[in-house]
Automatic annotation (TrEMBL):
SUPFAM superfamilies found in the cross-reference section: HIT-like (SSF54197)
GO BP terms in the entry: nucleotide metabolic process
Name under which the protein is recorded: Zinc-binding protein of the histidine triad
Domain of life: Eukaryota
Residues in HIT domain copies: 20-87
Xref: InterPro entries: Histidine_triad_HIT, HIT-like, HIT-like_sf
Length: 141
């Protein structure tokens, strides 16, 4: 491998120019953002498997989840929980963990492009629900 090739796999870099997610985080590519905090962002998939199909990612570039440090992983998990609660609550969509099996179950069904008007309406519902959830006091164990 050349040093140029190795640089593409350097997950310690904050942003990768050829990473679609990094471009969304930097505001260089459009996205229908449903949740955002200092370390994470959640946005509607542009080719959803079903209504409410949302991607929750850390703002810091990583090649794969196993490369996350503990603090970033914990923050991402919290963002994931808040986002899925909001999606399930007001968007009337069913939160489903991302797995390869999910994609295989839909094999042959195709994916429709996200409609901007529908996305904006769904985004607003999810953001409202996420805000209300964030305002509730955390459960005590």
């Amino acid at each position: 491998m050349t040093s140029h090739t190795l640089a593409r796999f350097d997950s310690s870099r904050e942003m990768q120019e050829d990473c679609a997610f990094c471009r969304i985080v930097a505001g260089q590519s459009p996205a229908h953002v449903v949740y955002e905090d200092e370390e994470n962002v959640a946005f509607l998939d542009i080719l959803p498997l079903r209504p409410g199909h949302t991607l929750v990612i850390p703002k810091k570039h990583v090649q794969q989840l196993s490369h996350l440090d503990g603090a970033t992983a914990a923050s991402l998990s919290q963002a994931l929980v808040r986002t899925t609660q909001a999606i399930g609550r007001d968007a009337k969509a069913t939160p489903t963990p991302s797995t390869n099996a999910l994609a295989l179950m839909r094999l042959g069904h195709g994916r429709d492009e996200l409609d901007d008007d529908e996305a904006q309406e769904l985004c607003a519902k999810i953001r409202r629900a996420a805000h209300e959830i964030a305002q509730k006091p955390a459960a005590k164990l």
